[in-house]
Amino acid sequence: MNLAHPLATTHNGQAETSIADTANADKSAKPLRIAVLLGDAVNLSPHSVQVLGTFTERERVQICAADANQSTVHGPTAHEPKVHEPSVNEQSSLTALLGQATTAIEQGKLVELKFNDGNLPQSLYLLDGLRAAKLRLHAHAFIAGFAAGNEVTGIANAAVENAATVANAALAAAKRSPAQTVQHQTVANTLNEAFVALRQGVTALAARTQAPLKGTTDIKQTNETNQQTGYWFSGQHQARVLCLNLVAKNIAATTSNPADTLLDSGQNICQSLVLTQGTQVIAPKALVDENRLFIPISGDSINELKAKLFQLLSSLDIGAPDTSFALHQLAFWFERYDTNAPLALVLMAASIDDLKLEAKAMLTALESDAIRHHGQHFKTPAGSCFTAKPLGDAGLTFVYPGVGTVYAQMFNNLHEYFPALYHQLEREGDLSAMLQSPQIYAADVKTAAGMNLSQQAISGVGASYLFTKLLTQVFNIKPKMALGYSMGEAAMWASLDVWQTPHAMINATENSDIFNHAISGELTAVRRAWQLADNEAIVWNSFVVRADSHEIKALLPEFPRAYLAITQGDTCVIAGCETSCKALLATLGKRGIAANRVTAMHTAPAMLVHGQVQDFYTQALKPEALEPEALKAAAQDLPIRFISAAQTAPVTVDSHSIGRAIADTFCSPLDFSALIQNATEQGARLFVEVGADRQTSTLIDKISHAHASQSTANAATAAIACNAKGADAITSLLKCLAQLISHRVPLSLAPLIQPLSANAAPLSSAVLPEGEPL
Fold it and tell me: What's the pLDDT band for 69 if we cut at 50, 70, 90?
């Protein structure tokens, strides 16, 4: 087997070096640093287009593979007829051509790879990494090394071993460790297929998406994480590295073309390219498109809204329901939308035909007395919504869920729509640890279900932190109040820019005796409270039961090892010794749903660690969180009021008060019903659940409806979730935004509008990330 030296100018007719020669190459030599830019209008910023256009004709080299069957390699002025593309076995391999490209790049030239991806023409631009930096071109990826060699077919183990040898040679040339590398193998029998695979690899790095590339894979995956299809997590300040392994199968065995039979039919060619991430983040996917329609319509009255709906329906009946028409409609209505109008509705649909149905349903709703005169909120399963009595943002309250709401593969495609946000969060801390990605995004969905208390706590806070930044920074939504369900109080302080170093809590929680031993795991606090010997087992469980809390409290003296942990609307949670809990339920005459979760939070034994919990959550605060309220009011940035289940008045924003409030909530029985009632009395009206799933939204709706039925004096409230398990993450987010719009909450529509304008620059062009590892 022969191996082309990855730094040599390798082309047909020139000698190749052996594997040993490559392995013994000068280890002090610098690896390649070829900048690669995706050559399409979406991902090239105007600056990039302008700079690339300044390269003169002499400074440009083209390498073309126009389609799977034809290819021409030429300069920019050549007009030779296209000829049959030589097979990879004839040395028109990607690595051979990259050898030629390396020489041209070293001479200061710009190399353009032209090929077809399906029926679409594509280009990749290659130039020296240092020159790209000087020109302020943010590369989507870098080529750091490559290698090629032959493998013998028919001997499976030898084939895998030889392919691995080639990959290791490329990694050695790039001075990258296999341990820090994701490897992907695919078959590429033609130059065009190899170019397509290269583009997909560059795109995966630029999109930070660790999805298997397209193409036939018949080699054993060498890295199991390659099965992951979501965000490509990496250690903080650690570059992503992709080793792209291509195999040209023996074409002579599958084709009758004589031009493909020049080499021994027993030989396949292995090629490996090492790609590292660039500083440019790929353009985000559009939140709103022809398959996810979102139309906001504003007006001064219901009659005006009806008139605009008739106008919309008329235009839908006239126009042809194609993609361009749908996008035109979206852009038109966004342009007409008035953020200051007193009323607004939103239509959501998956197609033009569905949009017509949604508009007609909305018209019917607007004509009903319940909507027009009684102010009932109207909402369809598709997400269309309207309220005649908007709640506004005066009582906008962020609600943070507690432990146990995270789930496998939660919002795993969110990064494709908000790449700049993920980039920011990665720079600020360990995003993978924050979300507990090895468990949440594992190939086996059962892994997430097996997370321990500390892992669930960290992941829950991470999900809330992510959605808080999304709502406040991307959509510019400003809450007036905040509260948390159980440990959601900790997520509240971590997410709303109060704690100085919230990311430090990740490692502290992972190694905390409180979460791992005292109130979970072996339950050492419970053992102390019950005065058990070391050899006495504790069988702990908790049960959700539909019952009045007073009924349960009356029976607790009979069952000293059972506790009323949580009161939440028409249900309660009892926890403790499983036998005692079941006996209590039997006496109560109720059935309980076992949670099968081991945690002694909100029970009497937890009071034994109250001091430890308070110390744990007594954290340094950001200076801006301590600014005098007068200064914030003068700047029209009124401070958020933080509501705790532990006290009636809002929590004073200082380290000691915060730590004590969290400890009091953590260790005492939780009355979530009282918390919501207290928040409502303080002015909370619109509750937005910020985190994974929608469990607290459901509870708040029940609690609010129960209070409203008891007294007509209770103010109207609404609960909205920004995520829902089992639903598309983007659709759930849009449904949340739609309801906020209908309630006239000020928010930025820029993330929805920009992709709709043909003249607008892509969102990524306005974001030039700095400080990424290379």
Answer: very low
Q: In this structure, how many other beta carbons lie within 10 angstroms of the beta carbon of residue 342? A: 11
Cβ atoms of 620 and 543 within 8 Å: the answer is no
Q: CA triplet 511, 517, 523: central angle to 5 degrees? A: 165
- The DSSP output letter for 272 is E
Cβ-in-10-Å burial (0-12, 13-18, 19+) of 171 comes to: buried
- pLDDT > 90 in the chain, percent: 69
SS3 of residue 571 by DSSP: strand
Report the alpha-carbon distance of residue 379 to residue 720 in Å, rounded.
Answer: 12
- Token pair for 768: 């030039």
Residue 691's closest CA among 380, 430, 456, 360?
456
Q: Measure the CA–CA gap between 511 and 437, rounded to whole angstroms.
A: 18
Distances (CA, A) of 687 to 64, 393, 492, 680: 57, 10, 14, 10
CA atoms of 714 and 733, how far apart (whole Å)? 29
Region 462-468 average pLDDT: 98
Is there a contact between 210 and 182 (Cβ–Cβ < 8 Å)? Answer: yes
Please name every residue paired with 577 in a beta bridge, in sequence order, or none if there are none.
540
Predicted confidence band of residue 258 (pLDDT cuts 50, 70, 90): very low
- What's the CA gap between 207 and 509, in Å, rounded? 31
Question: Please, are residues 5 and 26 in contact by the beta-carbon 8 Å criterion?
Answer: no
The kind and range of the H/E element at 513 are helix 513-513
Q: Is the pTM of this model over 0.85?
A: yes
| Residue 227, pLDDT above cutoff 50 | no
Cβ neighbours of 709 (radius 10 Å): 9
Q: Which residues contact 671 (CB under 8 A, 6 or more apart)?
A: 549, 566, 567, 645
Q: Hey, is 371 helix, strand or coil?
A: helix
Q: What token pair was written down for 726?
A: 């089992």
Dist. CA 195–CA 15, nearest whole Å: 24
Beta strands at 120-128 and 110-117: parallel, antiparallel or unpaired? antiparallel
